[in-house]
Design brief:
The protein has about 170 residues and is α+β, with helices and mostly antiparallel strands. It has 2 domains: about 50 residues, no CATH class; about 110 residues, Up-down Bundle (Four Helix Bundle (Hemerythrin (Met), subunit A)). The strands form 2 sheets. A 3-stranded antiparallel β-sheet has the order 3-4-5, with no helix packed on it. Strands 1-2 form a two-stranded antiparallel sheet. A hairpin with a 2-residue loop joins strand 4 and strand 5. The longest helix is centred in the C-terminal third of the chain and has 19 residues. It starts with a strand and ends with a helix. The model has no long low-confidence stretch (mean pLDDT about 95). The structure holds zinc ion. Zinc ion (ZN) binds next to loops.
């Protein structure tokens, strides 16, 4: 049994430690979410002992999302980060593509193939600058590979796609 402190809110929002337990013949690899503050951090345990405990997910870009990015889209980016932690890189970039598409629908772009939506947003409605349009096209490019193609997505690429998604969502929310 291990008593773990939430790195963000222990002592402020929570007074008790988080208790995690597994027996001699079990291993836990996963994400702890503190329900007092919502913070997520990864843990690996074996035989009841902590092997690895980080204070935050390896990629924590979703915390940098602008406050006016909608909760649904924020959740998609967080899911992409969880996918990355679990080494599901195709799923990761696919979630980023989803966040991009939903953000365009939020802005009033008609739901149709994403390439067309991006053109509408850039050329017709002027919602995307040249820079954010380029970023969005690259998110689509890798998201399409994740969703449709027989190609691998490298961890570094998935990391970069999350980074670009947060940048693009913040820039286009101004
Ligand atoms: Zn907490």
């Amino acid at each position: 049994m291990s008593a773990i402190e939430c790195p963000v809110c222990q002592g402020k929002e929570r007074t008790e430690s988080i208790i995690v337990e597994c027996d001699r013949r079990a291993k836990i690899t996963g994400i702890i979410q503190c329900l007092a503050c919502g913070h997520e951090f990864p843990i690996t345990m074996r035989n009841g002992h902590i092997r690895k405990l980080d204070t935050a997910l390896p990629i924590l870009q979703s915390d940098k999302l602008a406050s006016d990015v909608s909760p649904d889209i924020r959740e998609d980016v967080k899911e992409a980060e969880r996918c990355h932690y679990h080494q599901c890189y195709k799923a990761c970039v696919t979630m980023c593509r989803r966040a991009l598409q939903l953000s365009l629908i939020d802005k009033g772009i008609e739901d149709k193939p994403l390439g067309k939506m991006l053109e509408d947003a850039h050329k017709v409605k002027k919602l995307l600058t040249d820079d954010t349009y380029t970023q969005a096209k690259s998110i689509k490019h890798f998201g399409d590979i994740g969703a449709h193609r027989q190609e691998a997505i490298e961890p570094e690429v998935a990391r970069l796609v999350i980074y670009t998604t947060v940048l693009m969502l913040n820039e286009s929310s101004k």
